[in-house]
């Protein structure tokens, strides 16, 4: 397929971006509805939280498999089937039947989401010529950001006027439209690399992911020093070692580890993961800061938090367009500099910080992410052979979702551990009579986020320096 001659490429981008937005959104929109779901389903809050956890675990468990299958049978075919599954799962989730039925619906929904997430960047990379690829991936990155951050605000608006099932049912008409639109415009011919699929290897990978993420989610509830949590982590590591050993030996690996020998691919993947970890520190802390410490209601807090995705949505396509003309490595570096500065600014927040300054800091991190994400995705997808586009897209989405999960867990652990040290006893929530304890914990958490972002910046800076040195 000649990328330069596809007249429908921007319409293809619309179809891909819609499903990307919905699949990412459904990882965050449910959080605000958990208290309502808990009451409606007559279940405790800790059980309701599995509605979020199951979705993220299943996505991470299937991304790599569907990336490999997509390279074998075609990315468009897997993307469209995933879209249908996502819509069907969304329909099931909306029925107030039981927790078990809801978790089944979320599993179906997550499998569909994994199919679309593992193929979206690959489709865009194949369809767009190199002169427009950064801009197109910038738009996809914008919708990823919008979906990741807009959940609480959009969910709150829906819950204000409709039952909780509609946070899922809203996907049905949008998904049907996106599917039909895609059937018309998505390419009918594409590059395929027929290969066997290592389903035995996938079983090891699946077990490792479920044990690892299950231990993270349960560890937040029962404590990470619990013997069963420790055992789950140990077994997960052993299973992953078996998986990696198998992949290196067989002729048709699920993940060809040769792909990681490409420094641009590996470093960009790592930095993308680290920045999602960094971003989700603020996602965890911001509701406590805005609503508990500063006394905002949920709706107003949601509006303030929307500054991040709105700024990123505006900036990312321009950054993508620039990356098609300038050095993507240079743009990722400067994007990380802005994100790093924003984390330092977050670490100065307290109960008296002017709101205009808080909003400026939030806009700053959205600006930095807008500059960073599109060129970083462009480097990831452009640095691999066409036969690896599906698996590269799957790994890219996996790093993003892992960043979300680990970011939430790490931020929660650091925040409450620091608050416990400051209070002199175990703290697991905001203390209304001790705002100073929260501020101390918040500062430690944002310093931690600063360090994580600094590591990403140094790694990217070294790569950029070496790249310029090689050109000379």
Quick summary:
By secondary structure, this protein is mainly alpha-helical. Helices cover 79% and strands 0% of the residues. It has 19 helices and no strands.
How would you describe this structure to a colleague?
- By secondary structure, the chain is an all-alpha fold.
- It contains 19 helices and no strands.
- Helix 8 (130-159) crosses helix 17 and helix 11 runs parallel beside helix 18.
- The model has no long low-confidence stretch (mean pLDDT 85).
Question: What keyword list fits this structure?
Answer:
472 residues, mainly alpha, Growth Hormone, Chain: A, 19 helices
Distance between the termini: 35 Å
Order of helices and strands: HHHHHHHHHHHHHHHHHHH
Q: What would you say the CATH architecture of the largest domain is?
A: Up-down Bundle
In percent terms, what proportion of residues is strand?
under 5%
The CATH H-level homologous superfamily of the largest domain: MFS general substrate transporter like domains
Mean pLDDT: 85
Helix fraction, binned, reads over 70%
Structural class: mainly alpha
Low-confidence stretches: none
Query: Looking at CATH, which topology of the largest domain would you report?
Result: Growth Hormone, Chain: A
User: How many domains comprise the coordinates?
Assistant: 2
How many strand units? 0
Radius of gyration: 21 Å
Characterize the overall form: globular
Helix tally?
Answer: 19
Largest β-sheet summary: none
Q: What's the CATH first level of the largest domain?
A: Mainly Alpha
């Amino acid at each position: 397929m000649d990328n330069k001659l596809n007249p429908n490429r921007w319409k293809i981008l619309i179809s891909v971006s819609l499903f990307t937005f919905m699949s990412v959104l459904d990882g965050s929109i449910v959080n605000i509805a958990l208290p309502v779901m808990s009451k409606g389903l007559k279940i405790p809050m800790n059980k309701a939280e599995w509605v979020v956890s199951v979705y993220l675990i299943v996505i991470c468990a299937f991304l790599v498999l569907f990336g490999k299958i997509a390279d074998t049978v075609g990315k468009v075919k897997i993307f469209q089937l995933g879209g249908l599954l996502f819509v069907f799962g969304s329909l099931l989730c909306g029925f107030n039947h039981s927790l078990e039925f809801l978790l089944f619906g979320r599993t179906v929904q997550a499998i569909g989401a994994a199919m679309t997430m593992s193929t979206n960047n690959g489709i865009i990379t194949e369809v767009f010529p190199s002169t427009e690829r950064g801009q197109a991936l910038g738009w996809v990155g914008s919708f990823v950001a919008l979906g990741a951050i807009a959940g609480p605000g959009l969910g709150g608006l829906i819950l204000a006027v409709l039952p909780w099932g509609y946070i899922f049912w809203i996907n049905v008409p949008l998904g049907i439209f996106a599917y039909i639109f895609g059937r018309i415009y998505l390419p009918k011919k594409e590059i395929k690399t027929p290969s066997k699929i290592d389903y035995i290897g996938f079983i090891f990978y699946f077990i490792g992911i479920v044990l690892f993420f299950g231990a993270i989610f349960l560890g937040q509830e029962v404590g990470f020093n619990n013997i069963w949590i420790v055992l789950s982590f140990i077994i997960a590591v052993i299973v992953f070692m078996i998986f990696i050993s198998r992949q290196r030996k067989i002729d048709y690996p699920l993940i060809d580890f040769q792909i990681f020998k490409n420094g641009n691919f590996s470093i960009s993947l790592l930095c993308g993961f680290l920045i999602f970890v960094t971003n989700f520190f603020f996602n965890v802390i911001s509701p406590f800061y805005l609503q508990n410490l500063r006394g905002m209601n949920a709706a107003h807090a949601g509006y303030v938090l929307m500054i991040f995705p709105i700024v990123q949505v505006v900036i990312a396509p321009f950054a993508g367009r620039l990356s098609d003309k300038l050095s993507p490595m240079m743009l990722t570096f400067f994007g990380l500099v802005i994100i790093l500065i924003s984390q330092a600014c977050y670490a100065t927040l307290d109960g008296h910080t002017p709101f205009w300054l808080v909003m400026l800091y939030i806009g700053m991190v959205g600006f930095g992410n807008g500059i960073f994400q599109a060129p970083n995705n462009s480097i990831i997808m452009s640095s691999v052979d066409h036969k690896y586009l599906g698996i590269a897209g799957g790994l890219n989405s996996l790093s993003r979702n892992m960043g979300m999960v680990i970011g939430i867990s790490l931020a929660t652990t650091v925040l409450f551990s620091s608050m416990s040290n400051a209070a002199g006893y175990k703290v697991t929530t905001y203390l209304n009579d001790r705002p100073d304890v929260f501020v101390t914990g918040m500062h430690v958490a944002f310093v931690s986020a600063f360090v994580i972002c600094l590591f990403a910046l140094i790694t990217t800076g070294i790569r950029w320096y070496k790249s310029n040195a090689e050109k000379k």
